[in-house]
């Protein structure tokens, strides 16, 4: 059972620090079908907050390396966190890849589908960022901390209960979009 | 403006000019490719249909064009903002300065170079990999 309450899109719980950035909110999001788990390119929460102040792309939650959870956008508002959609039917092995590689075209085709024929998108998903960093020598994102994974697990469960999100609708960013495969690869929520 | 202020302004201008042109020279050194070797074409990441990228290959001409013209991007841009593609071409290169490097270019135009002097370079050029 969830112990959180939702007021004006804010998830009120002692474990969540409210730090809403209105400029990353991009219009109403009446329904939520899924959750996308991300990792930031910047190694500090402060750098991500600075970017959010400019109204750039952003997600609804940010989890610090020490496990602190910030809510950065209201859950009834869209944010731009997914990017170009991959074809969900490829993951589910119900279609063959297009003959020409074109993320733009695939995204357009996927955007015309309704959920759950497509992945949850900016229009109907919550984004959770984990503070990360991309390492030059290995060309991979850093491993998520134990505290981050504990907080992620708690937050995902809380959102699932509050918004009735199915466990099958939670994806790492590179599964749903054309992103580096190592992003959030070490994130654990189950 | 007094005489010494004019002199100070001139010194500052020349210093700035020197720093800028110096920086450009060292940057361009890393774009001066002498040779390309050990090219492995159409590597498809595991778990993907081998036909997904339609036999992705880059000719020597395309590679030289890429290394000369691709836009250098910050590591964060490379990691977070550019498209990943499941197919890539890898190889080695030698600069005119003698520095060697390993490189990787994805079908999306995202690329990286690891120079043996410890420098890393991240690049982006979609048109470079699609032009013939």
Short description:
Chain A is an alpha/beta fold. Chain A has helices at residues 45-53, 88-91, 103-111, 146-163, 173-176; strands at residues 5-7, 10-12, 16-18, 34-39, 61-63, 69-71, 125-130, 134-135, 140-141, 170-172.
| Shape label of chain A | globular
Cα gyration radius of chain A (Å): 16 Å
Strand order of the largest sheet of chain A: 3-6-5-7-4-10
Radius of gyration of chain B: 19 Å
Large-scale geometry of chain B: globular
Major sheet summary line of chain A: 6 strands, mixed
Q: Please tell me the overall pLDDT of chain A.
A: 95
Tell me the helix content of chain B. 25-40%
Q: Give the low-confidence spans of chain B.
A: 16-25
Q: What is the distance, rounded to the nearest whole angstrom, between the alpha carbons of the first and last residues of chain B?
A: 57 Å
Write the H/E string of chain A, N to C. EEEEHEEHHEEEHEH
Order of helices and strands of chain B: HEHEHEEEEH
Number of strands of chain B: 6
What distinguishing features does this structure have?
heterodimer, A: 190 residues, alpha/beta, six-stranded mixed beta sheet, two-stranded antiparallel ribbon, 10 strands, 23% helix, globular, B: 132 residues, alpha+beta, six-stranded antiparallel beta sheet, 4 helices
